[in-house]
TrEMBL record, chains A, B:
Superkingdom of origin: Bacteria
Enzyme type, top EC level: hydrolase
Protein name per the record: Phosphonoacetate hydrolase
GO molecular function: phosphonoacetate hydrolase activity
Residues spanning the membrane: none
EC number: 3.11.1.2
Keywords from the UniProt entry: Hydrolase
InterPro entries: Alkaline_phosphatase_core_sf, Phosphodiest/P_Trfase, Phosphonoacetate_hydro, Phosphonoacetate_hydro_insert
Keyword Hydrolase included in the entry's annotation: yes
Organism: Ramlibacter pinisoli
């Protein structure tokens, strides 16, 4: 038995794979199954277990991947966005460095306990966080050709996978993750594997459309191969995905820095968009969650009251209430947290968002409206109450502790 | 000036058309505009006014159409569903009879004030309610060939429109409404026209898909013709529309009568689904809103508490709280009101829903998740605050009182 972040896990008894499908709104699976494009998933749902779970809000990639591999919310592991304002240094930084991590991962603990562990992620930004302190294999599709035994526990990855390194903006970047997972299972049979994709496709294609169904059909084929090799598989997501457009089909944006500049004075407030990462062409850094740092002499309450009155704003909370409600580290989320509605995103200033790369109506995430995610296991489970509030970070608990 | 249901309206100064597009989730328009399929709407949004409004919950056809033509919520006009339990007679009945109407319509008042008024609705079920007490033209596509001067103020409708009466389950049933509106405007130029379609297409096709875009392109052409004739046009909807399926693509249903039978005893509770109407093939009478009538000896509170714990249930309220929150007539909504979530519907008993007619993954409405609707006017308006909570039943107020 292994205890990590106050949860106890039994050791894996068969090869165990947890898959985090980036941006996998449940409807993607539903529509693809209904169209006959996911025969493996259809049978996994019939013969295994299909739950719908809540992800962590902000419904972004880093906080949720870290929640899944720690089994805990951001209040425990500390990763509350892809991007934050570091109050200590007074700078805005990417949250990719393991120095931000406040809790050990279950992956590292399993490796320390003698189990072989492999991690494959699409983008390199997540690799160091997921692999922190972990002995084993850990690499990204994005930099698969740069993997070394010393740094990644593996080399010559493209040759193993039989694919060239794909473009960072492509469906193939995620396919590479699945193809690598299948080849790793075939050649090395790790005890535990964690696969994490990128949501490039989901940012462009709505559930049931040809682009989305093709992606899910591809995923289904690889998961079927893993299943055929005897793997226990849990499929979940870091967050959902929704259209974020006005009636004219253009992004429906609350430009929050501009609003604060008008309301409180130019430059007195700092608006942080935790969706920000190095790759923003497909969403223009527009998501449904923002944090606001106020000047010391500015009380939060009157600003909160005004922000709540804005069309498209779903929820505005002060720091303490937001930390409680969403289980976030209070020292890293600013004075005010804003969550916009299903069809609305939050930006900083008009001038700071380059939307020229958007070649399809904006789809994005970050809010409560993207909190529902699938949680599927290809086995019947014991003691599973469908009316309980399941979390995506219960995935390892289900596959290690609840198999019938 | 005309005062109806405590709201005051100026008389129409030019031909004025209010269009209620059944099931028009805002994203239908956004995706069709983005795809270049709605050039009239694109220019109306650029040169006129595009708002997003809240419809009435339950987000069903009858309550919302009556709200639009009375300018008032169901607590005023009395129509709180398509279907209700008549406690006086102890029977379940359709709410199509004007005897259920508790308020006059603006349409009747305009006609009484000497303005020419025409109403065209897709299904006949709405016709008597919309036309109650109104002098003028009022007919349905469904029974266009049976219209008489005495009953409908017009005859020989198919010849006027140049279309045969379409099948009740077809996109053409709604096209007939628009085609009739254009011919009425061309030949009789009514002062005020109200057009109301059916959501057959929206129940089958998601926003941005070919079926949905074709419907919206069709609508756009007719609205462009009305605009070219000098009409002021307001476009709104009775409710939105969402996929209502589980991960396996099949309807995600809370069978509430079965649940109550198990919890309280078989047949002791009566569950009413106000979505019920004579035409349920395309949605199986499954929506996201239900009311529950308890036996006199059964307190509501413990049942409410249990129902709130069910997966997929968004909100469960006792009668008084539900009447307050949704502005409903308390004497017509039962002891408990249940609203399910975006992807979940409520049924009665498994055996009472025939889902064999569903040839596409279920899409439906009824809940809070379908409350957002478009509210577009092809004119700039004065004194319009986009942060105000607009309602679809503000449509006549906007076009009669707020033109610049």
């Amino acid at each position: 038995m292994l205890t990590v972040n106050q949860r106890t896990y039994q050791p894996p008894r068969q090869p165990t794979v947890v898959v985090c499908v980036d941006g996998c709104e449940p409807d993607y699976l539903a529509q693809a199954v209904a169209a006959g494009r996911m025969p493996w998933l259809q049978s996994a749902l019939a013969e295994g277990t299909g739950l719908v779970a809540d992800c962590v809000v902000p419904s972004f990639t880093n906080p949720n991947n870290l929640s899944i591999v720690t089994g805990a919310p951001p209040s425990v592991h500390g990763i509350c966005g892809n991007y934050l304002f570091d109050t200590a240094s007074g700078t805005e930084v990417m949250m990719n460095d393991p120095k931000w991590l406040r809790a050990p991962t279950l992956l590292a603990a399993l490796a320390d306990a003698g189990h072989s562990v492999a991690v494959v992620t699409a983008k390199d930004k997540l690799r160091r966080l997921l692999g922190h302190g972990m002995k084993g294999i850990c690499f990204s599709s994005e930099k698969a050709d740069q993997a070394t035994l010393a740094e990644n526990g593996i080399e010559d990855v493209p040759a193993l996978v039989g694919m060239a390194v794909p473009d960072v903006y492509s469906a193939e970047l995620s396919e590479f993750v699945f193809a690598a997972g299948v080849q790793l299972m075939r050649t090395r049979r790790p005890d535990v594997m964690y696969l994490s994709t990128t949501d490039y496709v989901q940012h462009k294609h709505a559930p049931g459309t040809p682009g989305a169904n093709a992606f899910n059909a591809m995923m289904d084929r690889y998961l079927g191969e893993l299943d055929a090799m005897g793997c226990v598989i849990a499929l979940t997501a870091d967050h959902g995905m929704n259209a974020k457009v006005g009636l004219d089909g253009r992004p429906d944006v609350i430009y929050l820095q501009d609003w604060c500049d008008r309301a409180i004075g130019t430059g007195r407030v700092r608006v942080i968009l935790p969706i920000t990462d190095p790759y923003v062409v497909h969403h223009g850094a527009l998501g449904s969650f923002a944090t606001v740092y106020l000047p010391p002499d500015q009380p939060a309450a009157p600003i909160v009251a005004q922000l709540r009155g804005l069309r498209g704003m779903e929820l505005v909370l002060e720091r303490g209430a937001a930390a409680d409600r969403f289980e976030l580290p209070a020292d890293r989320i600013g004075d005010i947290v804003c969550v916009s509605e299903r069809f609305t995103v939050i930006g900083t200033s008009v001038a700071r968002h380059d939307l020229s790369g958007l070649d399809a109506p904006l789809r994005s995430h970050g809010g409560i409206s993207e909190q529902r995610v699938p949680l599927v296991v290809n086995r019947k489970l014991a003691n599973v109450d469908p009316n309980r509030r399941w979390r995506n970070f219960d995935a390892f608990d289900l596959v290690l502790n609840h198999l019938q």
